[in-house]
Structure formats: C-alpha cells, structure tokens
Amino acid sequence: MTPVLRARGVSVEVGGRRVLDGVDLDLSAGELLALVGPNGAGKSTLLSVLAGDRAPVEGSVELDGATLDAWPVAERARRRSVLTQSNEVSFPFAVHDVVRMGRAPWRRHPEAARDDAAVAEAMAAGEVEAFAERPVTALSGGERARTAFARSFAQECAIALLDEPTASLDIRHQHRVLARTRERVDAGGAAVVVLHDLGLAAAYADRIALLDGGRVVAAGPPREVLDPALLTRVYRHPIDVIDGPRGTLLVVVAPSLALPPEPGERIA
C-alpha cells in the first residue's frame, strides 16, 4: 500500500544540536501510528516536520507522493489537520466559535455545506456541548484540550496529526479522544499521535514508533515494540509488559521508591 505520508532521512537541528537524526517513517491509510519515547526523544519535532511546520536540515517528507513544499498551504490544510501541544486562545471566543474555526480551510469549497454538521459532530466527539457558550479563556486545562481536539476534528481531514492530545485529560476523555480518532482511521483515514502513556498506545495504535535520542529505535506492532527490556533501556526505568484481559497489553512501571539508587547517588 502506498503511504499517504512518508519521511525519509529526516534530520533536524535546534541550537546546534541534532534533535532528529535520519528518521524514516511511513503512514498508510487505515493506520494509527503512535510516536512514543522519553522527553526530548524528538517526538514533537518529528510531528512538526510531518505537518510541514518545520523544515528538516536533511531528508524529505512526502504527502500523497508529492513533497510537502509542492503543496500549497491551503491545500495542505484540507489534507491534514494538526493538533499541537500549545493551543492557547488569547481572546474570549465562545467554545462553539473556536470549534468552527476548524472549518476555515473549506471556505468557498463545496465541503463548506457540511460546516454545521461537522461542527456538531466535532463538539460531540470532544464532549464540549455542555459549555459551548462559555468563553474558552474561562475553561479548565482539560476543557481547553477537549475544545482544541474538537476544532481539529471539525477540520475533517484524511490525515490527523495529534501531539499529546490526552495530556490534560481525565481517563474517560483520554479514551474518548483516541476512540474517535480510531473511528476516523477505521473509516479510511490515517493518524499519527504522540503519546506518553504506553498503555494507550498499545490499546489504540496499529503500529508504534519508539524514539530515543532523535532516532527511531523500534517500529512495528505494539507487541513487537513494547518489549520490556527495550523499554527499560530507553526510558532508563524498570518497565514490564504483561497480557491483560481480552487480548490487551498492560504496561507496568515500578514506583521510583522501589528502585535501587544509581551508583554514586546520594540518598537523603
């Protein structure tokens, strides 16, 4: 199957430091790909390169077989949606107006006829209807995150790029965001999702790419990538993976208090 998004040899430097180094990655239609790894591994940077928001110093990214710079910005916005970690809205727009902003790329296109329906479906997906009239500046962090997800969902792009969409959410809404994304993927879309929760990655992703030090150290189905020895080495923390109910994988992390001190570490 021809990838809808393909990265080859992507490298990025920030402040003279290489934060991505020769990354290759493919995304196919009908696939949800999770990017996981410790802080500073390069996950968000890679997502921004895939989105076309950051140019690599080496390598290239193709969207539907054409390099990203060959796509006009407006057309790119109709092909892929991007949900970043930072979704601050400085002005007190009502929540329903913020969600409707996701329809901007379709203005003056036949798809604009779906604006009202798309906004209603997106508000239901993010469960933001109860505070639709409230100013976004008056929301809690989790409510803002759900509003930002709803705005991205309303864009109705074939490819969704989401950077830590579950970070501020409670358990119900973590699963709701990923379940709604999964439904879009199963209907023929595609998604790349940056996650810190390995259990969520195991539950919703078709493939997982594990990054460390700016490189992809493993990529494949969850059962292949979520190897306890590999995870323990990459995260520098004891991690176990066991079979859960109904074919699920459970990621078990040892409490810090249970860890032996590192050599030379002083104990208070």
Q: Would you write up a description of this structure?
A:
The chain is of the alpha/beta class and 268 residues long. It is built from nine helices and twelve strands. It has helices at residues 43-51, 73-79, 95-100, 115-126, 141-154, 171-186, 198-204, 222-225, 228-235; strands at 5-14, 17-27, 31-36, 58-63, 66-67, 80-83, 159-163, 190-194, 207-212, 215-220, 239-243, 249-253. β11 (239-243) and β12 (249-253) form a beta hairpin.
- Overall body shape: globular
User: How many strand segments?
Assistant: 12
Unreliable residue stretches: none
User: Secondary-structure element sequence?
Assistant: EEEHEEHEHHHEHEHEEHHEE
Q: Strand sequence of the main sheet, in spatial order?
A: 6-7-8-3-9-10
Question: Care to give the gist of this entry?
Answer:
This protein has 268 residues and is α/β, with parallel strands linked by helices.
What keyword list fits this structure?
single chain, 268 residues, alpha/beta, six-stranded mixed β-sheet, four-stranded antiparallel β-sheet, 12 strands, 26% strand
Topology:
Elements: E1 5-14, E2 17-27, E3 31-36, H1 43-51, E4 58-63, E5 66-67, H2 73-79, E6 80-83, H3 95-100, H4 115-126, H5 141-154, E7 159-163, H6 171-186, E8 190-194, H7 198-204, E9 207-212, E10 215-220, H8 222-225, H9 228-235, E11 239-243, E12 249-253
Parallel strand pairs: 3-8, 3-9, 6-7, 7-8
Antiparallel strand pairs: 1-2, 1-4, 4-5, 9-10, 11-12
Helix pairs in contact: 4-5
